[in-house]
Design a protein that fits this description.
With 194 residues, the chain is α/β, with parallel strands linked by helices. Helices cover 53% and strands 12% of the residues.
Amino acid sequence: MILGLTGGMGGGKRTIARLFEEAGYTRIDSDALVRDQLLVLPEIIREIARRFPEVVDKISGCVDRGLLAERVFADAEALVWLENLLHPRLYVLWRERLATDPERRWIVEVPLLFEKGLENWFDFTVCVATSSTNQIARLTERGIPQALAEQRISKQLPLAQKLERADFVLSNDGTPETLQMQVARLAASLKNAR
């Protein structure tokens, strides 16, 4: 079984994915794959350096992800360009991982699941619901300025639409224990689903 986990930025996808891991699922963190496997590839760095020379450090040759995010979230065309560069390669990484054990239970963190029409990749979709106040607070705690956090959130499908399209919704506005109980209940209810 493959679950696609989505929600707004700062909603708690990572926390929920870890809870599913504790319930026996194998996690695929799309952001980590982009960060650790794609943004280090020489061909990706070359393409990014051509478009945004200022975001690639001249000495280390590494992409400054924060600066890259500032550039692309301020320019819709640049964001589409970057997604077109990275997403096809990301999907290849997913396929490779999922093919290693088709019988395993997987949870895949997919921030843009509905935006990119990826519903058919998954047996079920799970969306994290949280208030916009909590989203902004969590993002600013991570060091993202409020204006930039709001700008990034505005680039995603409104959370209400994601919630409407998801097979299951988990609320992340309560206590950690409440969230853990929700995940445990959902994992148990899916135990025999196919």
